[in-house]
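Input chain follows. Return structure tokens only.
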Amino acid sequence: MVNYMAIDCEMVETIGVRNSLARVSIVDHQSNVLLDEFVIPPGGYVVDYRTRYSGITKQIIDQKGQDMSVALERVKEVLKDAVVIGHTVNTDLDSLRECPCRAIVDISENSMLKLLYWRTVNTEDPDTDEEIIRRPRVSLKKLSTTLLDRNIQQGKKGHSSVEDAQATMDLFKVVSKLIRLKSSLKVNFRGQFGVF
């Protein structure tokens, strides 16, 4: 049985690292939180907490931050042999510096999800599927609002990596259902699906 897990990270900027890990969250296929850790950002002094986007403050890191090596050990333990789902997941994995997982699925690059989003937003869009697929990736916030009817990343306190990971997993499940439907109906639906 395949073990699917969604990940999202929040980053800050330090003197030495532009996207330095400050929080990592992992949820399982049912969106249960398996890991939610604040990390003392590597790279020296924090020059920008990006609080408006990351939700991270100096106080949070001072009170809850763990050493990067401790957090990475916990991530490795949770993700061992998992298929990791993310939205622009390479940014998250770069901040972790490694991924001890079986495979990676980036829903931001999923053609089926992109088509579903644009066809839902504008049912009379004259562009072909191929033209829509070539459009820039759609933000997690827009995908969640349109396809899950769920508002995320609201307010001025910043994003929640738990909330983002849960939305990512739920969007992955939408695509998985479409693939199963396509398979059972033998419908010709163009797109690239990653690892399923």
